[in-house]
Amino acid sequence: MYFIQPTLKFREFLGSFFVGGSEKELSEKLSNYFPNREIFFTDSGRSALALIIEKLGLKNSTMAVPAYICNVLKPIFDHYGIRLVFLDIDPETFQPNLNEYRSKITDEVKAILICPTYGFPVPNETADYLKLAKRIIIADCAQCMNFNFLKEKSQENSFNAFYYSLPKISPAPDGGVAIIANTTQSTQNFPRSSFSLGFLKNLLKSCGILNFFIQKTRDLLNLNNVGNLRWKNITAPHQISIKIFSNYLQKILEKKSTSFCVPILCIANRDGILKKIRKNNIFAEIIWSDPLVFSYPYNRHCPNTDKLARQIICLPNMPENEINKIKIILKQSSP
Ligand SMILES: Cc1ncc(COP(=O)(O)O)c(C=O)c1O
């Protein structure tokens, strides 16, 4: 069984209800790792972005964003009255290229959201451009599989703020972390998120064997997106997420658990291939078949995003012999 997001063995999962560090300890560890920055734990990556928008005073401003990014961010942009400028992506890097930045970053753009999609680093020429852009730069690292990756490239120094989604880098059922430079040192307490169907689903998905049954039921009954979490306001993560994340942090920092990026397949007859891969208990997913730009009536001319959104399958991190299984499926399915 292979899942996109990290999962725990059943015993580790049960143990997480009893053992684990506190939010304060976690903040201290991360502050050591990212000095001179303030660390905030929220209920999700989305809420981490919302918090950054509040802290950096970006309400009712214009922000440039990659057209190819998750549409779960839409309620946040709507809530804070943010006008978006969509940047089409380059199929080589899955990020906007320099021409796209140069032609679309006008004076009214106050902030730029970048996203190392699938964990690919920001290309050097873009990083150089962003350093001189005199804009607030926010990095959405929800697709980066560990913290070291940013560190190694020293990319975090160019960002005013960046955020991660905890379930993507650890088996935590919910949570996000916002890491913000130069804010006043004030810790903030948010109300704790309430218990919901979406949280229960995510909690069960944290454990490999339970996730297996969820995925099988989903495939059998053709259910998609049942109980997906919707953003309403910024809240604190559930305690169990903090415990699981804190138990997992060392692994993340030591880079033992995951590679730095989500493996992907770019393929024309995607849906049929996806079904075949999942039948082999490799729980690949389609992420962003409906990227953010599709949800807006304006600035929609982003042809590369349009094409790639229909072609990509995200794969779990798997050993070589399992990847061979996928190669065989692809070979058998080619006309
Ligand atoms: C790039 C990106 N940003 C933000 C998010 C939102 O993260 P969360 O689900 O923790 O709110 C996701 C989630 O899929 C994502 O892929």
Bound molecules: pyridoxal-5'-phosphate
Query: Class in CATH?
Result: Alpha Beta
Low-confidence stretches: none
Approximately how much beta-strand content do the residues carry? 5-15%
By secondary-structure content and strand pairing, the structural class works out as alpha/beta
The whole-angstrom Rg is 19 Å
Annotation, overall tally of beta strands: 11
**Topology as H/E string?**
EHHEHEHEHEHEHEHEHHHEHEHEH
Shape: globular
The CATH topology turns out to be: Aspartate Aminotransferase, domain 2
Report the span from N to C terminus: 28 Å
Write down the domain tally.
1
Helix content range: 25-40%
Strand arrangement within the widest β-sheet reads 2-8-7-6-5-3-4
The CATH architecture can be given as 3-Layer(aba) Sandwich
- The total of helices stands at 14
Nearest-integer average pLDDT: 90
| CATH H-level superfamily title | Type I PLP-dependent aspartate aminotransferase-like (Major domain)
Q: Major beta sheet, specifics?
A: 7 strands, mixed
Description:
The protein is an alpha/beta fold. It has 14 helices and 11 strands. Helices cover 39% and strands 14% of the residues. The strands form 3 sheets. It has a 7-stranded mixed sheet with strand order 2-8-7-6-5-3-4, with helices on both faces. The chain is globular and about 50 Å long.
Provide keyphrases for this structure.
single chain, 335 residues, alpha/beta, Aspartate Aminotransferase, domain 2, seven-stranded mixed beta sheet, two-stranded parallel sheet, 14 helices, 11 strands, 14% strand, globular, binds pyridoxal-5'-phosphate
